[in-house]
Design goal:
The complex is a heterodimer of chains A (459) and B (277). Chain A is mostly beta strands and 459 residues long. Chain A is built from five helices and 18 strands. In chain A, a hairpin with an 8-residue loop joins strand 7 and strand 8. Chain A is globular and about 90 Å long. About 2% of the residues of chain A have low confidence. Chain B is an alpha/beta fold. In chain B, the strands form two sheets. In chain B, strands 1, 2, 3, 4, 6, 7, 8, 9 and 12 form a nine-stranded mixed beta sheet that branches. In chain B, strands 5-10-11 form a three-stranded mixed beta sheet. Classes of the chains: A mainly beta (459), B alpha/beta (277). The interface between A and B is medium-sized, with 30 and 32 residues.
């Protein structure tokens, strides 16, 4: 018969020989040995300490010297290579034939996001991304820098940097999520690439989410979201001396109330979500030629949006229907601004005077079938969308459809296939045409076709 | 109020002991409040010429003191975390644990509460805030008032591990400085519930709930149920040293684990270590 010491030595040897990874998971086994009386508490503690020492000394992970306040470290990201074909025809009626932009690009993106979980429900992290545009993370191969194959055309930028506090049962709310910094958003934005908030956008400012379970009725959860985002910290206008600042920030305000009844089956979400949203921009009025610019002009934006999504199970796969209706309450005035050719003097909107129609609404309608989570999974999506000139702003719109511009409608078709659980292919075709083909430059294209074929590796 | 008890116990007359040996003990306020000072006093009575310096500011400080080399013994009411062990190793310190006693954490309610028992699931649901009214668990209708230790306490975290599947406390829970404060509040509040070390289970106005295990059996926080591992909310208490305890620290730990030492452990309200078989 083995005595206690022999048993202890045998167990220690067995656990250590079983490998460090196993050793780290041996807490429950030690508990069982304790309860069975095979070892006592002191022996168990010695064993735990030995296992930790072994883990630290003999495994790569153990050599990471993380602060004791770190409860988790997640390293995630992706690498994507893309072929992209663009054909954009200007929307001037008088544009010369052949003035269209016709090109192929061979693109890539890289994102790397370390996220550190800290004690007491705090999280912090950052994300490095290729490209510096707000609505794109793509860089181009063959975009010649100083020499062919040079690296000076390739940049890595800080896409996200944030601090987050997320917990449950917080002052009456079942869940809360507060974020500050440059961070991903949580708004419901059904549509390819996020439609009205391009999926590459990282907002800068504050976001607050509060979720109440069984709100209003059993099984329906209510999530209240709000965001206050800086567009520019110190506004500058052409009305001031060049280089002079106005110490008044331009802000974007978002409020969304999502009512949802959802459930998860085989890691896919099903159910219904509807989320009335209101967003406004605030800041000094722009003057000069900026009033004609959709990207510099923050005025006259007070848009109500109603995104909706319903996902059912069809032949074992998710079948989702989604839609968004949006209307800018100041859309007519905004369209007037964007159409104006007279600086400093917006046109007073009047259909009778030949000014543009209201141009204040936007919407999308889509259907998707499937999901891409496991090897062999596929996902097909078809969507129609329309954004009138004064309905919204190209600061936020999906940049792949109509080059992110307003005054466009059209469709998107997309098909994805997962080769493995981390390697996938997607082909997407976008066709946008101008709602008003005689509109001024910057307000969409007469026609804009984009074809993208992607190979993505996620980790 | 931060539960930080600084108990500097110099159990000797310094002036008469120029050659006195000093034993520095830092860490858990649970152990350092009563048990360790009583042991030190008894040990000094047997071995004159020893000066004890005891600082009870929380388990984390005790483990850190061993890593930093500022204490001979680190008291801890919880197990050292792997990150603490690895941090110590990086500094050439080998954290050596020694189980010196056990602490059973009792669930207490006001003595007027009709409940006498509760399942482990109900305990979790109440402290996590899933259940907010006594009527849900068979009590008189009314909101539940939850009392917990404050966040700097090792017991605060241990209770989450032992009873709440590591979940967060209900946002409505009220943080108390120590066992006495929790027992006092629950004793005054008919809707109160809290947890205390078994040394405080006889506090005025409170009663201890039996815990129903998954097999339907009822267990109470007692020496026998701690030793046979059936009471679910029990935990060992530790002395940590740098390597195998030696010198004065080794002698003191040896005394603590002796029959005489363990008798003091029991008298101070803790569960003694079972005699070796």
């Amino acid at each position: 018969m083995l005595n206690l010491k022999s048993k202890f030595l045998a167990i220690t040897a067995a656990l250590l020989c079983a490998g460090a990874a196993f050793a780290q998971d041996s807490g429950p086994l030690i508990e069982v040995l304790l309860r069975k009386g095979l070892i006592n508490d002191t022996e168990a503690e010695d064993l735990r300490a030995e296992l930790v020492k072994d883990f630290v000394a003999n495994t790569p992970a153990g050599k990471l010297n993380l602060a004791s306040s770190v409860t988790g470290l997640k390293l995630a990201g992706d690498v994507r290579v893309r072929f992209q074909y663009d054909n954009e025809v200007p929307n001037f009626a008088s544009a010369a034939v052949g003035a269209n932009n016709d090109r192929s690009r061979y693109r890539y993106r890289f994102r790397f996001a370390p996220t550190v979980s800290l004690t007491n429900n705090w999280t912090t992290g950052f994300r490095l991304e290729t490209a510096n545009g707000a609505t794109s993370t793509n860089d181009d191969f063959g975009n010649v820098g100083s020499t062919i194959f040079a690296k000076d055309g390739n940049t890595v930028n800080v896409g996200q940097v944030f601090v987050q506090y997320a917990t449950s049962n917080w002052h009456g709310a079942d869940k809360v999520d507060f974020r500050i910094g440059k961070h991903a958003h949580t708004y419901l934005v059904p549509g390819i690439n996020g439609f009205w908030i391009d999926s590459d956008i990282n907002f800068e400012g504050l976001s607050e989410d509060l979720t109440y379970n069984d709100a209003l009725m059993k099984g329906w959860n209510l999530t209240l979201r709000a965001g206050q985002y800086l567009l520019s910290a110190n506004s500058r206008t052409s009305g001031k001396v060049s280089g002079d600042f106005i110490n008044q920030p331009n802000l974007m305000w978002v409020w969304q109330a999502e009512l949802s009844q959802t459930y998860i089956f085989e890691n896919n979400p099903y159910g219904t979500r509807v989320a009335p949203t209101f967003m406004v921009f605030s800041g000094p009025e722009v003057t000069g030629s900026a009033i004609n610019s959709d990207t510099n002009n923050y005025g006259n934006l007070a848009t109500f949006l109603l995104p909706f999504e319903h996902v059912i199970k069809a032949n074992g796969k998710p079948l989702g229907f989604y839609a968004t209706y949006g209307m800018n309450f100041k859309g007519a005035a905004r369209a007037d601004r964007l159409y104006s050719t007279t600086v400093n003097m917006p046109i007073i909107h009047s259909a009778a005077s030949g000014n543009p129609p209201d141009y204040d609404t936007m919407f999308n309608l889509g259907v998707r079938y499937g999901a891409t989570r496991n090897p062999g999974d596929w996902l097909a999506t078809a969507e129609y969308r329309s954004v009138e000139a004064g309905a919204y702003t190209s600061i936020l719109l999906d940049s792949d459809f109509n080059a992110g511009r307003v005054n466009g409608d059209g469709y998107i078709l997309s098909l994805s296939y997962n080769w493995t659980d981390s390697i996938g292919t997607t082909a997407t075709f976008f066709r946008a045409t101008a709602i008003d083909k005689t509109g001024p430059a910057g307000l969409g294209f007469n026609k804009a076709d984009v074809l993208q074929i992607d190979l993505t590796a996620k980790f | 109020m931060k539960n930080s008890i600084l108990l500097l116990a110099v159990v000797a007359v310094m002036a008469t002991s120029a050659s006195a040996q000093k034993l520095v003990i830092k860490g858990s306020d649970t152990l350092g409040a009563k048990m360790v000072p009583q042991l030190a006093e008894a040990y000094r009575a047997k071995t004159p010429g020893i000066v004890f310096e005891i600082a009870a500011e929380g388990s984390t400080t005790g483990i850190a003191a061993i890593t930093d080399g500022t204490a001979d013994i680190g008291m801890s009411s919880r197990r050292a975390r792997p990150t603490e062990i690895s941090t110590a190793l990086a500094k050439g310190v080998t954290m050596k644990p020694c189980v010196v006693s056990y602490d059973a954490i009792a669930v207490i309610v006001n003595e007027s509460n009709p409940l006498t028992q509760m399942t482990m699931r109900q305990v979790e649901q109440i402290f996590a805030g899933d259940v907010k009214d006594w009527s849900v668990v068979g009590g008189n209708a009314g909101p539940i008032s939850i009392y917990t230790r404050n966040t700097s306490s090792g017991t605060y975290q241990d209770w989450k591990d032992l009873a709440m599947k590591k979940r967060d406390y209900a946002s409505s829970s009220q943080k108390m400085a120590g066992n006495e404060q929790i027992a006092a509040e629950v004793g005054k509040n008919p809707a109160g519930i809290g947890y205390v070390g078994i040394a405080y289970k006889e506090a005025q106005g409170v009663k201890v709930l039996a815990i129903m295990l998954k097999d339907g059996s009822l267990v109470r926080p007692e020496v026998a149920t701690v030793h046979n591992k059936t009471y679910p909310y029990a935990r060992p208490n530790f002395f940590y040293t740098n390597g195998e305890p030696s010198g004065l620290a080794g002698q003191f730990i040896e005394y603590l684990l002796s029959a005489e030492g363990q008798e003091i452990v029991a008298k101070s309200g803790f569960v003694p270590v079972p005699a070796a078989k």
